[in-house]
Amino acid sequence: MEERFKGSTMISISAPALEDDEIEAVKDVLKSGMLAQGPKVKEFEEAFASYIGTKYAIAVNSGTAALHIALLAPGIGKGDEVITTPLSFISTANSVLFCGAKPVFVDIDEDTFNIKPNLIYEKITPRTKALLPVHLYGQPCDMKEIVKICGEHNLALIEDACQAHGAGYAGKKVGSFGIGCFSFYPTKNMTTGEGGMITTNNKDIAEKARMIRNHG
């Protein structure tokens, strides 16, 4: 076990790999005096968008904020319903509640633990405005069926990819099928300490997300 965890009664679930390059990069930012947004954040956004395969990426302060803003940007609000999975961290459902909308749960596939597409249809109502699948433990959902459902019922597609940086489905990275949401919390496979990211190919969604991020 790492030296820093010796003598602790707490069971560590992660030990982030932070080495000299990461430490020097943080020093550069601290010395610049630009501690909020700035050129390094812009550089990160552009690199992450390129990696995921989207036109835009918007950095935020957490994966929860990414989910919340990703729902607000297409207009999800009071009285709307958002279909999602019950097997996820509480942020998934909470982000729906933060918008004044109602999370509607669909059961999971017993093999993948991800939302089961053929059960989604029976939960769609006139109030359903979005579908929020979770790529649980880095395993992509059945995006072929989910994209089809969203197209048939004119639903916004918000991907909870907070645990799935780099995961792919049918030659595409998760987070590129709809509005992608990522977390960079220390327990994730990619970390910035705290932080999150929204990815999208939609210019209007990107602009709204940036406005909301900046209290617009």
Please give the number of β-strands.
9
Describe the sheet with the most strands: 7 strands, mixed
Order of helices and strands: HHEHEHEEHEEEEEH
How many helices in DSSP terms? Answer: 6
| Average residue-wise pLDDT | 93
Radius of gyration, whole Å: 18 Å
Q: Given the C-alpha coordinates, what overall shape results? A: globular
Strand content: 15-25%
- Distance between termini? 46 Å
* Low-confidence spans: none
State the secondary-structure class: alpha/beta
The neighbouring-strand order within the major sheet is 1-9-8-5-4-2-3
Helical content stands at: 25-40%
Descriptive notes:
This protein has 216 residues and is of the alpha/beta class. The protein has helices at residues 20-32, 39-52, 63-72, 91-98, 143-153, 203-213, and strands at residues 56-60, 81-84, 102-105, 128-132, 156-160, 168-169, 172-173, 179-183, 196-200. The termini are far apart.
Chart the SSEs and their pairings.
Layout: H1 20-32, H2 39-52, E1 56-60, H3 63-72, E2 81-84, H4 91-98, E3 102-105, E4 128-132, H5 143-153, E5 156-160, E6 168-169, E7 172-173, E8 179-183, E9 196-200, H6 203-213
Parallel strand pairs: 2-3, 2-4, 4-5, 5-8
Antiparallel strand pairs: 1-9, 6-7, 8-9
Helix pairs in contact: 3-4
